[in-house]
Design a protein that fits this description.
transmembrane, 195 residues, 76% helix, membrane, transmembrane helix
Length: 195
């Protein structure tokens, strides 16, 4: 008799969670585009200027880098801090959806102002890796928030929690380094194209 496997492996669970998190970014982007496209008097548009507005004017390389990393760094640090909250899991989802809404609004505003093809390609080169990076950060935040809750309500050994904390911090340092490298490369590319 052949037995079917009824449970998912850890890798399959991580992949499905990543796809779900990335899907929530895309859902937020669609909401941001729709909200800005069919805006009525009650919709504030200041949130749409939160991301991606470094394309507005000609800038130096340092100003481009600071504009491209600033707000994303705020999202990354918020994901890091939400991992230390036992009730931070719903806020991780809301923050990821908020990022998607801001991204959709920025795409709509930038691509609606002319030269659509060049701007959309430049923004997608920026937003797709950053969205994947934030989806990984949110996955790690969800995972550590669950471990933090387990540690608070169960008798977990302290040394195991210390190891988990070191691994959590190391993962976010790696994500921070990847974010800095990506924004540096992107800013240099955009600066070279702008010249």
């Amino acid at each position: 008799m052949i037995r079917k496997r009824t449970t998912l492996t850890t890798t399959e669970r991580k992949q499905r969670l990543f796809c779900l998190l990335f899907g929530s970014v895309l859902l937020g982007a669609a909401l941001g585009i729709v909200m800005l496209r069919w805006q009525y008097d009650g919709v504030p548009t200041s949130w749409a200027c939160f991301l991606g507005m470094f394309l507005e004017k000609r800038s130096s390389l340092a100003a481009l880098w600071l504009g491209s990393i600033g707000n994303i760094l705020l999202f990354l640090m918020t994901f890091f801090l939400l991992g230390f909250s036992a009730v931070g899991q719903p806020f991780v989802w809301l923050l990821l959806l908020t990022y998607g809404v801001c991204m959709g609004g920025a795409l709509q505003m930038q691509c609606g102002s002319g030269n659509v093809l060049v701007r959309s390609v430049l923004l997608l080169i920026y937003f797709v890796p950053v969205s994947a990076l934030l989806a990984v950060a949110s996955r790690e935040s969800l995972r550590f928030s669950g471990k933090f809750t387990d540690y608070g309500f169960r008798d977990e050994p302290t040394d195991q929690m210390c190891h988990q904390l070191r691994m959590y911090c190391a993962r976010f340092v790696v994500l921070l380094v990847l974010l800095v490298l990506h924004t540096l490369l992107y800013s240099a590319l955009f600066y070279a194209i702008e010249m």
